[in-house]
């Protein structure tokens, strides 16, 4: 018998691209309406980076994917810094234009990569949440893309043999199973909402989040980007 948790082991190749386009349609209009000083705001989740830096990083990464440019060291901190520096002379609007194109064009390439690039789509969606958080906008690490983001997170953590966790989420009717113990470790337990779970798994600040319960595992063990 197939359980809801087992469904997340089956890859939907369109899911990463769908997550990106859902976020594109929400984020780009928000960015178009922002003043220049908003792009200079520091992003708490990415120390040392401004909103513009985060957007430049995302637009560069998605453009690389869309164009199939995966040179040695790509997506390393050094590569990310070079990508941001290369866009230093661009206007904010040009960065947003590239981001909009990338969020649409990268999906088919990610779909055809067999799962190797799925986590990049999740990471870009999380960065969009970083920007929303910086602006004080509702829906950071949530919104219409949350179901696809949670499904991706569950599958990626299981494929990687991440620490096991059973999550009872306010946002889903059925429990979500993340990670894989192989029988060696009993799963931890999370009770709370989906955006908070995303924050825990991506090392984002927890200031002001709704109350949640986490047992049997340390928060630092969950971070997939740590």
From TrEMBL:
Gene3D superfamilies: dinb family like domain. Residues 23-103 form the Mycothiol-dependent maleylpyruvate isomerase metal-binding domain. InterPro entries: DinB/YfiT-like, Maleyloyr_isom, MDMPI_metal-binding. Pfam families: MDMPI_N. GO terms for molecular function: metal ion binding. SUPFAM superfamilies: DinB/YfiT-like putative metalloenzymes. This is MDMPI_N domain containing protein. It comes from Streptomyces variegatus.
């Amino acid at each position: 018998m197939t359980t809801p948790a087992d469904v997340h082991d089956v890859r939907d190749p369109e899911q990463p691209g769908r997550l990106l386009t859902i976020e594109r349609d929400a984020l780009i209009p928000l960015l178009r309406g922002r003043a220049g000083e908003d792009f200079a705001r520091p992003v708490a989740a990415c120390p040392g980076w401004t909103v513009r830096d985060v957007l430049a990083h995302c637009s560069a990464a998605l453009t690389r994917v869309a164009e199939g440019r995966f040179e040695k060291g790509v997506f390393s901190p050094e590569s990310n810094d070079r990508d941001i520096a290369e866009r230093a002379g661009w206007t904010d609007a040009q960065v947003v234009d590239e981001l909009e194109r990338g969020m649409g064009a990268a999906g088919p390439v990610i779909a055809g990569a067999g799962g190797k690039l799925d986590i990049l789509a999740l990471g870009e969606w999380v960065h969009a949440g970083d920007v929303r958080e910086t602006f004080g906008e509702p829906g950071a690490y949530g919104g219409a893309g949350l179901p696809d983001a949670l499904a991706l997170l569950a599958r990626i953590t299981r494929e990687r043999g991440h620490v096991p966790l059973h999550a009872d989420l306010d946002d889903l009717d059925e429990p979500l199973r993340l990670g894989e113990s192989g029988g060696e470790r009993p799963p931890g337990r999370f009770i709370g909402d989906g955006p908070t779970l995303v924050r825990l798994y991506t090392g984002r600040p927890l200031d002001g989040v709704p109350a949640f319960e986490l047992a049997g595992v340390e928060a630092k063990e969950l971070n997939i980007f740590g």
